Amino acid sequence: MAAVNPFIGKTYGETISAIVDKYRDGIALTFEGRDYTFGEAKQHIDDASRRLAQLGIRSGDNIGIWMPNRPEYVWLWLGAAQMGAVPVLINTRLRKLEFEYQINQSKSIAIFVPGPGGYRDFLSELAESSPAVRDGTLPDAVFPNLTKVVSVDPLGAEWSEVVDWTQLDGKVETPPYATDPDAPSLIIYSSGTT
To answer: What are the backbone angles phi and psi of residue 148, rounded to the nearest 5°?
Structure first.
């Protein structure tokens, strides 16, 4: 007899909690020589949920995550999903018209990017699309749904209107888990590859 999948009908929050209960001290993620146990990952995921709530993100809100592979990507994705927000995972290779389309078509109200200094300057590219990113007048005609641009890395003074994720203390109550396992929980755009 085939094993029954214990996660059928479960939400992200229920699933993450069940995995952490079973494998708390096991290695969940390794990145650049640093291991994160499932217990540590859960702490980061819960912290991401609190910071999202601190930003005013609520269940049902779509948020874009446009960054390369790194732990914060996972924390944001799962932190948003467990509280019922819908992460929109945006490909880091997209060109201007493509990322503008996906941010807008997904109705993302916030976009999370790495700070300056990475292999690609996501903040500057967003600001080239819309000066409102730099001057803090979002939403605008280019990004009619976007209200926040958030850098997961520390920022300099030139980006004073961009939210610095590292400056959020997350000292709010952890949002309740989403309760509907059939509600939208993730948006990913295909790129035509198989």
So the answer is: -140, 140
Could you give the CA distance from residue 128 to residue 186 in angstroms, rounded to a whole number? 27
The DSSP secondary structure of 28-48, one letter per residue, reads: EEEETTEEEEHHHHHHHHHHH
Residue-wise pLDDT for 76-88, tens only, equals: 999 999 999 999 9
pLDDT in tens, 86-143: 999 999 999 999 999 999 999 999 999 999 877 899 999 999 999 999 999 999 999 9
Q: What is the pTM of this model?
A: 0.94
**Diameter over CA atoms, the chain:** 61
Tell me if 106 sits within 8 A of 40, measured CB to CB. Answer: no
The single residue listed with the structure tokens 């214990």 is 6
Distance CA 76, CA 189 (A): 18
Strands of the sheet containing 86-89, edge to edge, are 163-164, 148-151, 110-113, 62-65, 86-89, 187-188
For residue 113, which amino acid is it?
A: V
Cα–Cα distances in angstroms (integers) from residue 89 to residues 51, 130, 146, in the given order: 18, 21, 15
Residue 30 CB-half CA count within 13 A = 3
Nearest partner of 86 among 67, 46, 59, 50, judged by Cα: 59
